[in-house]
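#onboarding

Welcome to the new folks! Below is a worked example of what a typical request in this channel looks like: someone posts a single protein sequence, and someone else replies with the predicted structure as tokens. Don't worry about understanding the tokens yet, we'll cover that in week two.

Example request:
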Amino acid sequence: MPDWLLLLIGLGLLVGGAEALVRGASRLAASLGVRPLVIGLTVVGFGTSTPEVVVSALASAQGEPAIALGNVLGSNIANSGLILAIAALILPMRCDLVLLRREAPIMLLVSLLVWMQAWTGSVTRLQGLLMLATLGVFVWVSLRWARAEAPAIEAEFKEFEVDRGWLPEDFARSKRKLRRTRMQHAMWITVGIVLLVAGGHLLVESATALAHRFGVPDIVIAATLIAVGTSLPELATSVVAALRREADISVGNIIGSNIFNLLGVLGLSAAIRPVLVPPAVRDFELLWVVAFAAATALVLRTGHKITRIEGGVLLAAYAVFLFLLLRS
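Example response:
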């Protein structure tokens, strides 16, 4: 079977696996009494990033650190430069979620810290474990901050999760039914994990083969094709949220994913096997990660909204990134 077809199949399995995992985990969390806002910030936010987790972890375990690193960096760049830009072009977005104004500077800080760490030439196992621990602290703090959000924000998240099929339509009356069907939720989670692992394996193998066949560096194909492919769940979530005028979910999905990618995905990859960071990656891809994080944080600080013009600027910057990367 051609490598390009295997790659497409792998992407399809990753997207389907992420959807199944989010559906099962969201309903299981709801059956345990977890609030829709918390489900949106944790289960949905991290669940849509599971393709990045699986692909980077498998690549690291198979001795392909360039793919593991390129996937993380390329996904963060695509999240802000492509997905957030498309969402803003669809509909200008004003964010009322107070949590975002706190998380955006954290996203920039984490990006800067990873860039500074890259000057050592690698991300070690110890550093990877510390990044995972930091992610745990970040989640705990974010959930405490979420308690102060307005009831309207809670309703917005619940409505979105019901609309996507992650929670039952009649959420209040279905809690008892959710508890009775926990085995079904666990089955969805299991199916999702199996699809993710299978899709991740196909994607890494086929992308590596294509890169070698056409003489493209692994880091380039990982930061472009693989990164955009693994970001498809975030794209779907953000675009649907933008169409429904639910900017908090759209932007929150991007910021949460970027933080999770750097601390969780890169941290896990390094914990499995130290990830080498070549000077060329430190001076190009990582600088773009920092630049897009700074731009996103700045946009949210100026009126807490993202206009179509700002979305167009982000998209143009992403096009410049792709042009310079493919030329190198």
